[in-house]
Amino acid sequence: MEKKExxxxxxxxxxxxxxLSRFKVPVAEDRTRFHDFDLPDELMHAIQEQGFTYCTPxxxxxxxxxxxxxxxxxxxxxxxxxxxxxxxxxxTRMMQNPIRGSRKPGTPRALIIAPTRELVLQISAEAxxxxxxxxxxxxxVFGGMDYxxxxxxxxxxxxxxxxxxxxxLLDFKQRRDLFLDRVEMMILDEADRMLDMGFIPDVRxxxxxTPHKDxxxxxxxxxxxxxxxxxxxxxxxxxxxxxxxxPEQVAVDSxxxxxxxxxxxxxxxxxxxxxxxxxxxxxxxxxxxxxQVMRLSERLKHYGIQNSVLSGDIPQKKRIERLDRxxxxxxxxxxxxxVAARGIHIEGMDHVxxxxxxxxxxxxxxxxxxxxxxxxxxxxxxxxxxxxxFYLPPIExxxxxxxxxxxxxxxxxxxxxxxxxxxxxxxxxxxRSRRKKSPxxxxx
Length: 444
What we know:
Blueprint: H1 41-49, H2 57-67, E1 72-75, H3 82-96, E2 110-113, H4 117-130, E3 138-141, H5 147-155, E4 161-164, H6 166-174, E5 185-188, H7 191-196, H8 200-208, E6 217-222, H9 227-236, E7 241-244, H10 247-254, E8 255-261, H11 267-277, E9 283-286, H12 290-302, E10 307-310, H13 316-327, E11 333-336, E12 351-354, H14 361-368, E13 378-384, H15 392-399, E14 404-406, H16 439-442
Parallel strand pairs: 1-6, 1-7, 2-4, 2-5, 3-4, 5-6, 8-13, 8-14, 9-11, 9-12, 10-11, 12-13
């Protein structure tokens, strides 16, 4: 969904009396509005509150068919607006076709399957925002959290939407705390990752527990379209509308990309000055290795920059807590390995830094995709020393674009004393002359 351009709204009418006349979006050539679909007012109210107006390309292509009950098969990564596309279709179907009579607990109408806990939480958070004015009950189901607590959520009032990882979902099904025979809509998100992580046998068991594909609506999304994924999509969907949104082009179009040519010893000083002089908040810094992440995190703390670490060594519960603090603005910086490069959506994050360039060009695209999401513009700053420079050509080949490589001005490489310490001559850095262009100018 694209952010709203300045549109005047009446401010005097009480919120309880909201109606569509308060949400005005002008018709624009070659752009699709949410007004162009027959969406429930309660959903349109939430869309307005999110500040969205025009559809992203994947939303504009999928929604007409999905709202008419057709299956969908899409190649798209996070950040393209695909989550909102399938959520809008799910919510609209439920609002326009309410269940009559009683329904036993643990019997969802819609099932959304995702490979990781982080992605389940991201989808759930977006669903909560879009259903805030709707009488729709949503439950998240994933491992690493209290089983009894999740069971109590299922056994309470009837659940409409379940967002789940495959393993924990099967646990609930096998213990007969969850029944999938009434599922009307099923969404499989990041199917390629589920394949890579070995979840496809579990997914097959789940799908076989739902109604036949002729009696349910199915949407499948994948960042890549391998022969295996295409074959699975053909067996799980019926006559789907197919949409392909090029992930590399998304990154190129929505993110300003800059590479600073520095030595290994100059990286930290440049990073510190970029953060402090630009007054950056909600910043993710990527490193290739866990030991690099730990060292950088400690040094940033030494210089008074509040941060936390995300890597494979961090227990799942702590990772979720740190992400929540980061999203809430209680953490200024996350220092992460590529464990955080996919499936994490953070509203308002407009900068990503590659402290070390990834060895796999596709990881570069996933990293910078944490910013510049769903129509917003972001900035990706990368540091390239003597070793990193070897990995630039493959990245440029993948994204089909040359990235500006510049040398920072000398004063951006000067590192001050850490807070509370006296300045000493030994800490003054000798730097060679640089071309007169500053990070502040480049990232504006």
